[in-house]
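Why predict the complex rather than its parts? Because the way molecules touch one another can change local conformation, and only a joint prediction can capture that. The input here totals 774 residues.
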Amino acid sequence: MDLPEQGPIAHQSAVFTDGLVLDCGQHLPSLTVAYRTYGALNAQRSNAVLICHALTGDQYVGETHPLTGKGPWWDHIVGPGRPVDTERYFVICINVLGGCMGSTGPMDDRAPGEAPWGADFPPITIRDMVRAQKRLIDHLGITRLFAVVGGSMGGMQVLEWAATYPEMVFAAVPVATAFYHSAQNIAFHEVGRQAITADPNFAAGQYYASGRTPKDGLAVARMVAHITYLSEEALSRKFGRKLQGTTRPTPHSLALFGDMFEVESYLQYQGNSFVNRFDANSYLAITRAMDQFDLASEYDGDLSRAFAGTRTRFCVISFSSDWLFPTHESRAIARALNKAAANVSFVEITSDKGHDAFLLDEPDLRRVLGGFLNGCALHAGLVEDDR
Amino acid sequence: MDLPEQGPIAHQSAVFTDGLVLDCGQHLPSLTVAYRTYGALNAQRSNAVLICHALTGDQYVGETHPLTGKGPWWDHIVGPGRPVDTERYFVICINVLGGCMGSTGPMDDRAPGEAPWGADFPPITIRDMVRAQKRLIDHLGITRLFAVVGGSMGGMQVLEWAATYPEMVFAAVPVATAFYHSAQNIAFHEVGRQAITADPNFAAGQYYASGRTPKDGLAVARMVAHITYLSEEALSRKFGRKLQGTTRPTPHSLALFGDMFEVESYLQYQGNSFVNRFDANSYLAITRAMDQFDLASEYDGDLSRAFAGTRTRFCVISFSSDWLFPTHESRAIARALNKAAANVSFVEITSDKGHDAFLLDEPDLRRVLGGFLNGCALHAGLVEDDR
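Output of the joint prediction:
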């Protein structure tokens, strides 16, 4: 298929007809927030855990994905008996503003009866995403989230939640993230954006009517991003220089070499499968939001001021081989929280799996996250001390 | 301009009408080797230094580039009074086989009167490049090179020279290189190749007739490669998160953000200027050659056997912040040379400039290289001991 087959999927969502005023000053006339929940909200409405997804993730954190048929994307973390235990917590996961899985984004019509926004979708920020999420949390009648948890761009949202709505966040777990996007990360994103906008099917972002999406450009964007998610060690262990005797799909390589390296075939698969579930304009809008993110700049350059007087309990987690969001960036968050006299623990988990580790079955991540949330649950009175 | 304006440039070259048999088994019916020389060959023909260029380099190592008008690409290293002193040495620099600056490559006609090779150019290896270079060295009447020096892909050629023609190499200096291309490096190259072949102008590699080159794809390939040449530190210091108030060239970004990050503008410049001097089919062929490179595999997996009995003097140089060819890969070369009882020194130069450091003015590189070559010149009898 060429365009994501979203027709048949009725994403669960809430619609806010008064829309949303964005950081850029523009007013979105209507706001749809698509989400999924798992477990039950308790009578006190005090056991809600918000999971924030990453750049290309979505709200289907705890179930089979309706488009790809793949299993839950954070299966090791969210579910019955898991660190984010759906038998104890009411888990909410929200498709970000600007996304393509039901929340308001570039695929939506600008106004009823008009063409889709496409590349004219207003620029959004991580704070805009969090504001949209808060609308849903308010709508669900939840005045305080027990925890906000997320990795990568999800971690940026965790930080923004804790800074913007401190009284609403009892515990915050930013994983494999940073309080600003580095020059190198911006550069990698820009390569992906150039690949998308260079695709003739992009048609200045108005490709929905033609049915021809810029899938080649989007696949290249996904491929370059995917390399940054892995460590050199992980790539070497997984593929090394192993050859694969398949015929390559591009004319050039058929002529040049009959064999290809397994890592090439893997990347091509990653690129090609991605385009069937993701919208290129969403990719542009969300990568822009990540690049713009600089939480300290919202507080006169002093990150600790973002957390002044906070009573939120923080657990900051990084992975040793993550070169996209290296440990020193997590340490800077922990330092700022210390300066703000916040309750914070910081853990660097030893792993050779790179940034991807936060999505994989890392026993240490399960242990650290589970232990931290259990302790917080005790303090929040969600569970009784059975020692 | 769209196609490199190569018409008016008469590259200095030698033509070998018997052609060249390649590693893949194919026979190139004719071989042209384009080159430049600097300094004078002495009467004993013993003072020749071969400089091997990197992926996108060329033979214009010591003079203004005829296409770009830029200065010599290794100005700090090659020239009068420089470490590779053109007042003492006869310096030769050769456009690699598969290149686009005069040596036989994809831009050449398959046979007189036929269409250019394009993407049908036979797959080449680093060893094929070195074999082509040896033809020129023989042609110049040089039986032993005083030194072979090169960085990155140039370093791969240095290693291949020392392994394949040990009696012809008195001294060898592989800089910022490896004896095999890693899975991560193959992956980054593959992203570039996908960007090129996805460009509709690529036309299965037969774009010369149309005059429309796959410049958007080639620019993306250059951009992603360029990120890997720099360190995170260098990017942060150079650009950080500084914004630039220019209008962006793509429609998407005009709508999304008026400002762009300086690093984006820089990358776009790098990508766009590259396409005016480089051929996309050459980029495909040469990146393939680098990816295929695995010197140990030519010697039953034991790199030390590549250098068995060698009398060449080696100086292996790496840079501390180079993550494309990290120090541990240079150390592996030094270890294999030690195992082969070769004369080897190994230096890791502290620099925060990433892989790019080998092309920049690094005083330590000048000192190490100059000192090593001076010592070798003494042993080779090129200069008298004036102590």
